[in-house]
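Work package 3, deliverable 3.1, input record:
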Amino acid sequence: MLSSVRSLWMVFLKMFKKRVTIKYPEEKPYLAPRWRGRIVLTRDPDNNERCVACNLCAAVCPTDCISLQATEDENGRRYPEIFRINFSRCIFCGLCEDACPTYAIQLIPDFEMSEYNRQSLVYEKEHLLIDGMGKYHGYSYYDQAGVAVGVKPKGGGENESEPVDVRTLIP
Amino acid sequence: MAKVFIDNIEYEVPNGKNMLEVALSLGLDLPYFCWHPAMHSVGACRQCAVTNYRDENDTRGRITMACMLDATDGTRISINDQKSKDFRAGNIESLMINHPHDCPVCDEGGECHLQDMTVMSGHNYRRYRFKKRTHINQDLGPFLNHEMNRCIQCYRCVRFYNDYAGGKDFGVFASAGRVYFGRSEPGTLENEFSGNLVEVCPTGVFTDKTLKKHFTRKWDLTSAPSVCHQCSVGCNILASERYGTMRRVMTRFNGDVNGYFLCDRGRFGYEYVNDEKRLTRAAQKDASSGSDPVSSVKAHIASRPKMIGIGSPRASLESNFMLKRLVGAENFYQGIPSNEADVINEVLRVLREGKVRTPSLKEMEDFDTVFVLGEDVTNTAPMMALGLRQTAKTLPKQKAYALRIQHWNDAAIREVVQDEKGPFFLATGYATKLEEVSTSVYHGDTNSLLKLSEAITNEIRSGSGDNQSGGFSHQVAQALLASEKPLIVSGTGMMSKSIVQAAANIAGALKDAGREVGIVYAVPEANSMGLAMLGAAGSLDDAISRVNNEKDLTAVVLETNLFYRTDNQTASDFLSHCHKTILIDSMENECTQEADFILPAGTFAESDGTMVNNEGRAQRYYQVFKPNNDMRSSWAWLDMMINQTEEARPYDDIIREMLEANPALEKIKTLAPAADFRIGTQKIPRQTHRFSGRTSMNAHVSVHEGKPPVDNDSPLTYTMEGYHGKPPSADIPFYWSPGWNSIQSINKYQIEVGGDLHGGNPGLRLIEPNENGITRFEVNSAGNNSGRYEVLPSWHIFGSGEMSAMSPAIEKRIPDVYIAVSDKALEKAGLQGADKISVRHQSATITLPVKVDNSLPDNVVLLPYGFKDTVGWRFPFKGELERGV
Amino acid sequence: MNETLAQILIIVGVLLGTVTIAAGLIYVERKMLAVWQQRLGPNRVGPFGIFQVLADMVKIFFKEDWIPPFVDKKVFVIAPTIIMLSVLMSFAIVPFAPGVVVADLNIGLLFFLAMSSLGAYTIVLSGWASNNKYSLLGGVRGAAQMISYEVFMGLSLMGVVLLAGSFNMTEIVNAQKGMWFVIPQFVGFVIFLIAGIAETHRLPFDLPEAESELIAGFHSEYSGMKFGMFFVGEYLGITLVSSMITVLFFGGWLGPAFLPPIVWFLIKMFSFILFFILLRATLPRPRYDQLMSYGWKLLLPLALLNVLVTGAVVLYNH
């Protein structure tokens, strides 16, 4: 009972504190670099698409608002044929960014994307793909991954030895 | 029963198992790689390590492999003690040293046994800092993708491909850390069962190349339990879809039929479903009336025209039944030529009236002696051939069992068996692949095969026979008589009624001699048996002659390409003689140009239905997805025609009507749960609980999400909503269990691993042998004898199937068309060195490149069955050889 | 004639006044909550956002007034009007200033208790008529809560009645000329305050509509102006309970003469309204069983004791 009264008093005193409200849009708020806003697809240092269409972002998405279809170029390098985010469903939770094994999908400090027409909130790959590396510089997934898809020869990745010669007799 | 202790809990388990099987059957999680429920233990991967204790006072125990530990009375192990846990974690860490960092681009990712086992063992951080070994990959043909970097050397692939499926062009190379699984040089994997490597490989070394083209993760697939439509065996499959196209086919375990495996035609032959030539919209030739095609068809039917119906062996029972109902029993014809129809009807008669039982595919493996008469099983019923390869090992294996080697001890058994084969005899028109496992073979034309079988029958009946003439018949007869469980295999491959009867006579003689004999027939198509069981007024030939004599007939052609079933002239005459033609089919073909009305039928992916396989087993298949066009089950179109309605009645109403009209099919009533089946209050979802993109897949069309399609025909839903536990065995849309994302989760659906599914394997046999049945059948003599050469069909797993041949991956494996003759025959005809030769039969001639096959008898000529150039020929026929131009 | 005219004026004045105050509370509550939460609150519509009320009203009038197909239609429509009616009726006996009272009944207090009991029907009926399990649960909770707190709400006032010797509201106010009843009847005041909150099902006693568990409870299915009636009904309830506290414990219009009596009344009343809002800004919602046991096991004995002691003191002084 007393604690309730004390709480009442403390809340009452808040009357005299400074307001925390920022008067957006007259005043723009500070957005941290890791702010979870509009989602983009980035490119690797060689300016290739980072996305390898692994579907993990789509799988982890709690609102199921990401859909994509994988395809391959002539070397077998996988990329998304379509990549669609329905921002009218997105809750900007950032789980897709967490799940992404290639740093392709990133959330950036931009939230001003209101539309009068909900259909305009459906972003296709051409709307999502940017010409840069976003927050993570210098990372290229295919340098690490043990597949050769025209980016490097077999065994040419980081921490990889030359391909085995299966015909050698040396033990 | 044996009493075993696992982590100090006592369990009663059946005898003759190993501890890994026991633990998995009890629902305990124990990791493994090299063990496979169909291929058993070799104890190579060291992953199922457990601690084995001598007795309850033993506190130290010793590490041992559960898969190599017999589950005898008093066996005491611990799965969860720290010592074995550490061992397993250390082991998997070593296996992962060279595993590449590529799960995101690996097709196995998300259904990878290695991923599951790594998580289960608790290894999650790479400590090894040195370089990873790499391998060069091989191009393994249109079916499989090869990525050797991912290999963990479990040896399952060679054990399956070489030892189980009898492959010759695959192996293991090099030693130590360089071990390599592949071909000696890059090239197509030739074995008919190579696709199973996708499921056998615990990780992504072998992946499905057709899936790779439109890759989708397992959790994103909408799947339904289905039945393979590519041959008569009726293997159970899981068919999966996303974005409106079929993505892949995987094995659906059925302990009575295909078990864990599928043939490549079944696995990769689904692609025609996505073909550009699919019929998607109802259409009419004469659009001047202005009404839409469907109403036009209905109006035409409502005007009560004289109708005939052409049924189809690739359409479901329901569709054929509804057609029969629409046109009337006296106007319903089987959509196959009379020679084929007669043979299939004879097979049905033998199975129904005969005394000999036809075993299921699984049961075939328990027989000990095999005699194949006139059938190229590998190409007409591939999975049956895989079964027969196991049958060939029945007797040699018993030698190993006699040495007290356990049934599951694969390496030891192989050591004993070596290359030994059981009594296995083939008498065929041409050399077939099963000769690899045979004791002795005989090649001959139809008449000599008939003579041979007569000799065998006589010898079995009399006990003594002619052991002078070549000795083959004597050898076979004695082997069959010596056997406890002989199996006679035949089929419609030679298109000869007499062969069917001759095989039945051999089996009958053995039955009368008190042997536990089985007889198996391969029939041409998925529902050939079902169509025969429904009964018809005649074959396609009867329909053709009726159209020629009667005018004003409306033909309703159900899933039949007349230009495939008969020659072009006859087919186009048929179409032009009909007053109107209503075509219900799934693919654009020569008929669609001529038909007055076209109603697009669903393939197995877009329709519900029941099929009857060669054994007489009725199996239900479910629609995988609702396409965004006019396609629907053929029976649904026919129902709309009959009742003049906008929507068809639900599937269960059709079934009820069919069973009322056909009491012989009675059992189908309990084949699968009815559409109102619920678990609690829930239906069974076709989508996994992780299905992604629900709110985005169709957002480009409209951001407003519509109501998902409703399934009134089955207890399954098209969405992820519903009961996510284990459904009834007939309705399993995908295999998944917590921690078991790969196909290995089948374990969790079985009563005991490798055994039957909970609730029994799906499918019900409609034909049981008649205890007082016939054991002697009158053998009709073979047809006319004009002409010197008998032309037989040669069957091809890739090419002889009407629909599968239209799938791009299969198309690449179809051999060039040919006429096969032996050198002797060429010499006899004076055609040595000819590139092309012609076969003349009456007025018709066919000219094709020569393929010399010296295994052929010199009076036999082969033409591939069902190829574009050879359709319309009625096998077997007598012909003359000429130099082709 | 003049007397009748004056009476009509008073009726119209009270009606308009209370409804306006209630409507204004929409803004006041939002603003005050913001103030106590270090926010700005409504600040976009007009200076300091004071036209927010207008905007809200325009909005709520133009909302689709949808009646779900599964509801009991007649009851569904009637239910929200009951709360408006019963609360407005109660205002009839509130003396705002000397002579400014619609009906100076000699059983005024009993009339108030009777009317506020009627308010239970609105919750029960709307919860029932909505044909929705959340609404029904809200209705059941509302009924139990209001009936329980009704009991000692009445009991807590008995002390006042004993001291004043009358049920007539004007006489009760006049009886406080020497001392506001809040001093001799402090326990009664506290109990009445708590019961009052429970009667108006305001936070922390808003269990019938608890958003987090019952998704708005009894008025889940309501929209448009029907929802508006619940909304305004609640603010009218707050106003009424605040007026009653003022009248019964804080000497009504009484106060130093430099301000007119009606102003004193309004000042006192608004303080309590603000206190109600402060409560909402501060206290969390108790569990339902806590609410019930708090009522029956603590407040009821306390109220009875209060009556006993007051009675004894009054008898002794007599």
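The first helix of chain C runs from residue 2 to 36.
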